[in-house]
Amino acid sequence: MPISPLILKQFDLFKQLPEEAISLLGEQTKLAEAPRRKVVMEKNQRAHSLGLLLDGRLQGIDLTLDGREAGLYFVEPYDFFGELSVIDQLPAPEFVIALAPSRFLMVPTPVMHQLINTYPQVSTIINTRLARRLRESLAQRTLLTMPTPLQRVCAQLLQLSKQSSAGTSDIVFAPTHQEIAIMINTTRETVTRVFQKLQTDGVIVRQGNTLHILKIQYLSKAANGEPAE
After folding, report:
1. pTM here?
2. Helix, coil or strand: residue 173
3. Which residues are within 8 A (CB) of 71 and not within 5 positions of it... i.e. 6 or more apart?
4. Helix, strand, or coil here: 137?
5. How far apart are CA 128 and CA 111, in angstroms?
6. CA angle 175, 104, 86 (to 5 degrees)
7. What distance in Å separates the CA atoms of residue 179 and residue 170, rounded to the nearest whole number?
8. 29-48 burial, b if ≥16 CB within 10 A, otherwise e?
């Protein structure tokens, strides 16, 4: 069943495509679903499609030598994944798993190559996403060198936070304690203790799926190992 142009145009990657290109893309794109914890992209296998998340939540992970999960990045709705393998046609360097029941579109690699070669704006968006993911990866490496769990949790929250239209710093669809734990190489119990301290000190407050950061300077100082008040 073809994917509606209205759905495709919700993605920045395709918003500027002409109608005829969108219609053709809809015929070549497939809709897929994944339950929680299902692997949607396998490490060391070539990606035959670019994935675009419609709803749910995904996470890129790798495995340490002792078999533990190491979180690399999150994929939020209307973002895409698998772009590196689509570009260089080499095996994927990580797994992507569903953190919640998710629906996503799969655009075959040859179709993406044609779009990249025909529409410069598509290439620009993908290159920008690759650059951002590289910067996120470098920042994550720096974070993992921090000596205390408090520093790592605070630094991770700063990385995930975005300024809202109201001028506050929020994390929409905030990750669970377990998801943060595998991002910063610690235990869920340790993350929970840090969150309890931050909540007691009035630094953060959770409202539904959103985490509001009330004292951004506190997090900055704590992440740098400075006394925070």
Report:
1. 0.81
2. coil
3. 59, 60, 61, 179, 180, 182, 183
4. helix
5. 20
6. 100
7. 17
8. beeeebeeeeebbeeeeebe
Q: What is the residue whose two structure tokens read 């407050």?
A: 205
pLDDT confidence of residue 65: 67
Query: What tokens does 82 get?
Result: 């698998």
For residue 161, give both structure tokens. Answer: 């936070």
Residue 44, phi-psi category: left (phi > 0), alpha (psi -120 to 50), beta (remainder): left
Q: Which residues contact 66 (CB under 8 A, 6 or more apart)?
A: none
Axis-axis angle for helices 177-184, 188-200 (nearest 10): 110
DSSP state of 105: E
Task: Report whether 222 contacts 150 (CB < 8 A).
Answer: yes
pLDDT digits (tens, 9 = 90+) for 153-187: 999 999 999 887 677 799 988 899 999 999 998 99
H/E element, 219: helix 216-223
Contact between 12 and 125 under an 8 Å Cβ cutoff? The reply is yes
Parallel/antiparallel/unpaired status of strands 80-81 and 169-171:
unpaired
Residue 1 amino acid letter: M
And the tokens for 133?
């993911």
Instruction: Read off the pLDDT of residues 35-66 as tens digits, 9 standing for 90 and up.
Output: 999 999 999 988 899 999 999 999 999 887 67
- Distance CA(38)–CA(97), nearest Å, equals 6
